[in-house]
Write a structure and sequence with these properties.
- It is a single chain.
- With 159 residues, the protein is mainly α.
- The chain has a domain of 95 residues: Arc Repressor Mutant, subunit A (Orthogonal Bundle), CATH 1.10.10.
- It is 66% helix and 8% strand.
- A three-stranded antiparallel β-sheet has the order 1-3-2.
- A hairpin with a 7-residue loop joins strand 2 and strand 3.
Length: 159
C-alpha cells in the first residue's frame, strides 16, 4: 500500500472534521445555537439561489447527515423557506430567509478572514489552485471506482 495515498485519505477525513469544528466555533462565538455546523454549511450552499432538496444534495456532500431532516430543522428555525414547485408538485424548492441570509453573510465573512490569515502565512491562491486540481483528480478517480465501467472510464480522463 502506498502510505502517502492512505495518509492523504486520513488527512482529508481529519480536515473535514476540523473544518466542521471551526464552523461550530464560529456559531458559538456569535451565540447561534439553533443551527448546527452541518446545517450552516447546507445553508451556505443554498446561498442566493433557490433549489430543490435534490439539487442541494448534489451540490454538497453531507457525510452522515440527512439533508431533508436538516432542511426541515432550518425551516422550523426560520433560516430557509420551502415551497412546492409550481411545475412538479413532488419537488420542494428552498431559499434563504432574511435570517438565513444573515448567517450566509457571517460565514462568507469568516471565509474572507481565513483567506487573509492564510495569505499572511504564505498560503495563497496558487497553492489552492494546485490543491483543488489534485483533489478533483482524486474525486474523479474515486467516482470511477464506483461506476459500473470502473477503470474504463478512468482511462478517458485527462490526469
Amino acid at each position: 500500500m502506498n502510505s502517502q495515498y492512505f495518509e492523504s485519505i486520513q488527512l482529508i477525513e481529519r480536515l473535514h472534521r476540523y473544518f466542521l469544528d471551526v464552523v461550530k466555533s464560529e456559531l458559538d462565538r456569535k451565540s447561534i445555537q439553533d443551527i448546527n455546523n452541518v446545517q450552516a454549511m447546507i445553508l451556505h450552499n443554498v446561498g442566493r439561489d433557490e433549489m430543490t432538496v435534490g439539487e442541494l444534495t448534489l451540490r454538497g456532500y453531507y457525510l452522515g447527515s440527512n439533508v431533508s431532516y436538516n432542511v426541515k430543522k432550518m425551516t422550523e428555525n426560520g433560516y430557509i423557506t420551502q415551497e412546492r414547485s409550481l411545475h412538479d408538485k413532488r419537488s420542494i424548492r428552498v431559499r434563504l430567509t432574511a435570517k438565513g441570509a444573515e448567517l450566509h453573510k457571517l460565514l462568507n465573512d469568516m471565509f474572507q478572514r481565513h483567506e487573509e490569515k492564510l495569505a499572511s502565512l504564505g498560503l495563497e491562491n496558487p497553492d489552492f489552485v494546485d490543491l483543488n486540481h489534485t483533489m478533483r483528480q482524486l474525486e474523479r478517480f474515486w467516482a470511477s471506482q464506483t461506476s459500473f465501467n470502473g477503470l474504463a472510464s478512468l482511462e478517458d480522463e485527462d490526469f
